[in-house]
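for the recovery benchmark. tokens below, seq after
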């Protein structure tokens, strides 16, 4: 893993991709940090790449917290952190966590937010991969298709529904003209 890059993934102008966000905990099952817990939040593109914990993870961003979250965020160190439990956010496709490095060995793919290998006898996870099925969830009554991220259109481009019409303001700070055009072309207002 590496220290924070200058631009968060949401600002890179990535089109037609989804990103993962995982929080890995060193010493707790059930994703509940204690006072002596170190944890990291790792983000990256959901493209099926296999990442091995405790090795370089090119293309990811990482923030590290210690003392149960009382200290941080800091850039991730090279200290070992093989997670006992993981909070995952990857759209509607759960990430896959493996007992061995290089995405080998026993695997767990849970649909819940917290993934814990303890009930299956795993002391920690060694690697993971996150994929994307090309669909995007509905967010703020907006649904996007053809690989356009609803999250980018709503949160970065500030698009909103006005009745059945999608409105995207001109020149938002966190969005490019091309991204706005993709949002307008590939997103629709969905009634709840």
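predicted aa per position
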């Amino acid at each position: 893993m590496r220290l924070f890059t200058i631009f968060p993934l949401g600002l890179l102008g990535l089109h037609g991709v989804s990103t993962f966000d995982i929080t890995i905990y060193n010493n707790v099952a059930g994703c509940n940090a204690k006072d002596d817990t170190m944890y990291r939040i790792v983000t990256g593109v959901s493209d099926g790449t296999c990442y091995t914990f405790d090795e370089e993870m090119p293309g990811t961003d990482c923030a590290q917290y210690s003392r149960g979250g009382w200290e941080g965020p800091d850039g991730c160190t090279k200290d070992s952190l093989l997670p006992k439990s993981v909070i995952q956010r990857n759209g509607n496709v759960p990430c896959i966590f493996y007992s061995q490095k290089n995405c080998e060995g026993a695997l767990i793919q849970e649909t819940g937010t917290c993934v814990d290998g303890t009930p299956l006898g795993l002391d920690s996870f060694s690697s993971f991969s996150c994929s994307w099925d090309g669909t995007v969830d509905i967010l703020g009554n907006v649904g996007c298709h053809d690989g356009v991220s609803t999250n980018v259109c709503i949160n970065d481009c500030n698009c909103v529904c006005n009745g059945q019409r999608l409105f995207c303001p001109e020149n938002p700070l966190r969005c490019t003209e091309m991204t706005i055009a993709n949002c307008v072309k590939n997103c629709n207002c969905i009634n709840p």
